[in-house]
Design goal:
alpha/beta, Rossmann fold, about 15% strand
């Protein structure tokens, strides 16, 4: 089954045009799905979650022109980052001045004025494939480590350190669901962010051992 790339744009004609261009960039091994944004961030996150095997999301910066969303593309990026710090995200725009910091939340800002140029498309293709490969590697490492700890927990007792790691990895598996709840207390989001930072530190330590 092909992995999916989601493209979000509020204009139907743009979804048609840029979906084709993005499909050229990503290649036949990926399936680019163009979707209309929802009015609220909460509904948009839920819509994204309804798609399986998503390895990348491209978001147009101006989402309010036709649909009238309550957010811009860069604001949707920040919302997605609460639940996934590693998923490759891209902003599509013809006006760099519209994008507000922090730029570090996205892997790359795609320039609409260059996207039809073959050299630029080739550059984007190399960059995006590299990001997807890194994303898949991280997910595979997490999944393999979780399975190892799960199997050990069935036949033996986990050490205190292993139990903390197991719970952290398990949290990563369910935190997207938490992020799409209609009301998530700020204290809970802070706990999620702190735990995510701790998880990443633990995984890096494991990789270096």
């Amino acid at each position: 089954m092909k992995e999916n790339v989601i493209f979000i744009d509020d204009e139907k004609s743009s979804r048609t045009i840029y979906r084709g261009t993005l499909q050229d960039i990503y290649g036949d091994e990926y399936n680019v799905i163009a979707i209309e944004p929802e009015i609220t961030v909460h509904d948009m996150l839920a819509k994204i979650e309804s798609y399986e095997s998503v390895v990348s999301i491209v978001i147009d910066e101006k989402l309010h022109v036709v649909v009238g969303t309550e957010y811009k593309g860069s604001q949707l990026v920040e919302a997605i980052r609460v639940s996934d710090s590693k998923l490759p995200l891209y902003i599509l725009t013809s006006e760099m001045g519209l994008i507000e910091p922090p730029f570090g939340s996205v892997e790359y800002i795609i320039d609409k004025t260059k996207i039809e140029q073959e050299a630029y498309k080739h550059e984007c293709a190399i960059l995006m494939r590299r990001h997807i490969n890194s994303f898949n590697d991280i997910n595979n490492q997490r999944s393999e480590r979780f399975d190892i700890l799960l199997k050990k927990s069935i036949i033996d007792e986990l050490t205190e350190e292993e139990l903390a790691e197991y719970e952290a990895l398990d949290f990563l598996r369910i935190k997207r669901v938490l992020s799409t709840e209609s009301v998530v207390p700020s204290s809970e989001l802070k706990k999620q962010e702190d735990l995510l930072a701790e998880i990443e530190g633990q995984l890096k330590k494991i990789e270096n051992e």
